[in-house]
Every structure is written in C-alpha cells, then in structure tokens.
Design goal:
This protein is of the alpha/beta class. It has 9 helices and 7 strands; from the N terminus they run βααααβαββαβαβαβα. It is globular, with a radius of gyration of 16 Å.
Length: 196
C-alpha cells in the first residue's frame, strides 16, 4: 500500500504554518497548484517575505498530531501488508511525523536550509510517487495507492488499484473513474481488509 501523507494521515503542514502566522499565501497546496515546482517557488518566496524560517516551521510542526483515526488505520494496514508513505513533504518535517505514526517508511524530499532560512528544496526524484509505484510493480508486487491531491494522481493511476481519499470535489469530478472515499474504514474495505 502506497499512501500520501498530508491530508490522508496528517494535517497539511503548510496550511498549519499559514494559520499559525495568519498568512493566506501559504495555504496553497498541490490541490490548487498542481505543478509542484511552481508551488514550492511560491512557498519559498512567501517564507522569505514573511521572515518565516525553519525554526518557526518546526515550532508549528511540533504542535500537530496525526488525523483522527490515522494511527489505528496504519496499524491495521501494517498488520496485513507492507505500507510505504510516498510524500512531497520534507525530511526535516518527517522526523516528528514518523514518530507520531509509529515509524512507517516515509519517502520524501529535502529542504535546503542555511542559518534558519529555507533557501530551496531537493526532489528525491521527479514524479517520484509514480516511479516508486512502478518500481514496486517490477518486483511483482500488487500495488494499492491512495492520496488526495493532484500530485497523487500519477501514483494512483500507475498502481494496480488506486483510490482518492478525502480529495476535493474538483479532483473527484475530474476523475470520476477513480474510486473516492472519506473514511479509513472505507479505505480498508476497498483494500480487502475489512474494518471492524
């Protein structure tokens, strides 16, 4: 099972930072700007202008918790099959998040930080979610994938079975052929792991 992180298991970190600092420009996610590079350039510019650095982001992150039901959902999944979280979040964020989710495997990107200033970012791989799914399939693994945003679509479509989870109405309307769920129990049922 390949899962997105933010919006599926954990709050959207950038939205939490935006709320904390009352900065509407940081509320934008891949749900609104599908092009990840364009989105990150926007975020880096906003951080510089607002004087928000890595320490400030970390303070906000330390106050977040997994979404209701996410920990038990992951526990149920991991008892039955391997789970990999494929995320466009960053290693600097994932340390705290992984601990709260009982240390699942999280593959993500990396921020470039100098003297508390977030100066850039490094992708592990272009379209890494899709390419990871394709890699797992070359090992003769049946791959399930679920996510909520535009940047999850290539992963979902590359999987043997893909689903949207708590996706915005616009994405659901654009992709009526992809099953869409809002509860963890529904996602477990879809994966053939009947929830109790």
């Amino acid at each position: 099972m390949c899962l997105d992180l933010e919006g599926v298991l954990y709050p959207e970190v950038w939205i939490a930072v935006a709320k904390h600092f009352d900065n509407a420009d940081l509320k934008v996610t891949t749900r609104e700007i599908p092009d990840y590079d364009e989105l990150m350039k926007h975020r880096l510019s906003v951080l510089r202008t607002a004087g928000i650095g890595m320490r400030e982001i970390t303070t906000v992150l330390n106050g977040l918790s997994p979404l209701d039901g996410a920990v038990s959902f992951l526990q149920t999944l991991r008892a039955s099959l391997p789970v990999i979280i494929l995320s466009d979040t960053f290693e600097q964020f994932s340390v705290s998040i992984a601990r709260q989710l009982n240390y699942p495997v999280i593959l993500c990107n990396r921020l470039e930080v100098q003297d508390n200033v977030v100066t850039g970012y490094s992708l592990r791989q272009t379209d890494g979610k899709r390419r990871a799914v394709e890699g797992f399939k070359t090992m003769n693994l049946e791959v399930f994938a679920a996510g909520d945003s535009y940047n999850d679509l290539s992963m979902i479509l590359a999987a043997d079975r893909g689903a949207l989870f708590r996706a915005p109405d616009r994405i659901i309307a654009d992709h009526p052929d992809i099953p869409s769920y809002i509860d963890y129990s529904e996602l477990l049922d879809w994966a053939g792991l009947h929830s109790s």
